[in-house]
Amino acid sequence: MKRIVFISLAVVLALAIGLAGCAPVEEPGPEPSDKIVVSFSVSQTGPLQEVHDFAFGSIYPVYFDMVDTLTIGSTTFDVEADPRDDASSMANMIDNTEAIIADIKAGTSHFLFGPTCTAFLEAQAPLAAEAHVVQMTAEGGATSLLPEMGEYEYSFINLSFSDWFQIPVLAKLLAEAHEAAFPGDTPHAYIGYQNDDHGLEYSSVASTYFAQEGIVIDGLYPMDSGDTAANGELIAAAKAADSDILCAFAYPEHVFGTVQTANGMEYDPKAIIVGPGGCFGAFGVIIVGDLAEGVMTFATANAKTSPAMEELFNDILLPVVGLPGTDFWGHPCYYAALQMWRESVENVGEVLAGGFVIDQDEYRDYLRTHKFTTCFGETWYVDADMTWPVPDSSGGLLNYKCHTGEVGQWQSGYVEIVGYAGIGTPSDPYELDNYVVTAPFIYPKPAFPAG
Q1: Where in the chain is the domain with CATH 3.40.50.2300?
Q2: Which class would CATH give 166-302+403-418?
Q3: ∠ CA 356-396-102 to the nearest 5 degrees?
Q4: Which residues lie closer than 8 Å to 59 by C-beta, 6 or more apart?
Q5: What is the Cα–Cα distance from 53 to 288, expressed in whole angstroms?
Q6: Does domain 35-161+326-401 have CATH number 3.40.50.2300?
Q7: pLDDT score of 27 more than 90
Q8: Per-residue pLDDT tens for 117-155?
């Protein structure tokens, strides 16, 4: 019996020693750095280059020229922007993201900003979640991610998008304007959409909200990247249906071509709404020129919506990128995101052995739980259910009630913020308290200029 006990104790001791030897070893933290590095995979070349060049790509250099150092405690660090070209390739974007995450783990980079389009954003989100690295996005919507935000608790979405809260405003605006101009007449719309996650998101959401407001959809036409013939095919279909409203929920290659082709084919609907491209100053100032008058686009602000936006548009952007380089949809959101990023870094970043380090979980939690002062005024993240502070089980969306606009219209060479009756007032059914209308909506839009 004693021998059996001895053997049993020996086995237990051996197992204990073995288990202790196999205990997981914590990975070393990032090495302290002598600078703060912000990395992102972006489409500096390829079909998405126009989106990048006019959107996040034209504002982050302006911001980091102004904010080229940050002080953490009593130590000042240089800030370095680290863009990595993915050539508009999903595979390249994933490779770049994995490399950036590895650099963040090592301490040679510290922050991951999002890629250039919705499809890329959605593909990057699970990589960030698995790595426990905050994904601070710029371009791209998140309609498809909304039901899954609990899986992507490291993702923070900053841009306005289809049902956050553009299409609901657009549908109500168009329906009310059509009824006022043509009492008792049913408005009809034709939708062209980019044949990817972006376009599928917008066409689906528009189908829901247009129907809710009594707008009949005559047809939906997918447009593939690089297929320039799609512009004429869309216009031919919309003209044949005699649709009142033409929607081009697409990227610049189709947005620019759709408006120009509509004019060339003598199709002049009562309203035209276009996606990325129409919000760029170059659209109305250079690319389509006078054809832009009355064309609608998505826009979160202009220089008239608040003193802070006047400063952003007139004092910060115009001297550097001019009106052609201004993005009335994205620039306010990206600038606000950079302001929230800066405050978070200054409050959560640490100095270790004289170098900069940051804990991604603390950074994420600061974003979740704080309200910030940005170009929108008081700004904060919510989850898909509008909950604040954002629960531990979710990523964050910049609260659409912070937006100062959703829909714009080109009027006299500028994008004005337009809205339905009562928007931004106590009677507003959507409770868009921050919304500022800067000009009355023109419907029907002015006819294309002759010749």
Answers
A1: 35-161+326-401, 166-302+403-418
A2: alpha beta
A3: 40
A4: 317, 321, 327, 330, 331, 334, 335, 338
A5: 18
A6: yes
A7: no
A8: 999 999 999 999 999 999 999 999 999 999 989 899 999
